[in-house]
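In response to reviewer comment 3 from the previous cycle, which asked for concrete evidence that the modeling workflow produces usable outputs, we include below a single protein chain processed end to end. The sequence was submitted unchanged, and the resulting structure tokens are shown without manual editing.
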Amino acid sequence: MRSLKLTDRITNWIREKVKEADAEGVVVGMSGGLDSSVVAVLCKEAFPDTSLGLIMPCFSLKEDVEHARMVAKKFEMETKEIDLSNIFKSFLNTLEERGYDVEGKKIEMDIPVANLKPRLRMICLYYFANKFNYLVVGTGNKSELSVGYFTKYGDGAVDLLPLGDLLKTEERELAQELDIPKAIIDKVPSAGLWEGQTDESELGMSYDVLDKTLLAMESGDFSGCDPESVKKVKRMIDVSRHKRENIAVFKK
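The workflow returned the following structure tokens.
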């Protein structure tokens, strides 16, 4: 098995997990970013006839939607577009009892508000997973999962994580192997939670620094690492542990 290319190993693994669950295919959310583009192509390779990509804009950038469509067209993926903008606005109005305009310009995108987006998308993904007996394939990578950079019960609520053991830097190499469009590989990573939001600004460091720090923590060799970055990564790992572990249960 180790002699196979990484892409082949991942697609074989996806098939195995779907078979174990007695499911018939896979569904994945397509945001137009690198993570979801890579996973979508892997899903298409694993299940050419029973894979579905959901494009779910929610006050999203036009470029992101166009990039998701670009990947779908290039790799001949079956997709469904569901605009969640009005549902998001209506849901938020119900929660907060405040009036937001149709364009959502008055919505202040703090973390609780922004996290509604991936949680609404999770509902859609599981609707179609239930409808077609598919599994939901997540797009998180090892870098993000390690420090809890995902929304609990949002993009973190999935059945499979094919990139879960790949660092962001390794994922970029895989994207090139899969021939993901260069515009997607080169664009600034963003979860698209609000205008101008980027992954690295929220993390407080670049993915290169994060990956270098995570590798150092695994090997125990911190030479060349910034002590403050190491301290910050360790704290992110500690405070996000509840996101990765099973629900804590009191034992009588």
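The beta strands are 25-29, 51-55, 79-81, 134-136. We consider this sufficient to address the reviewer's concern, and the full set will be provided in the supplementary archive.
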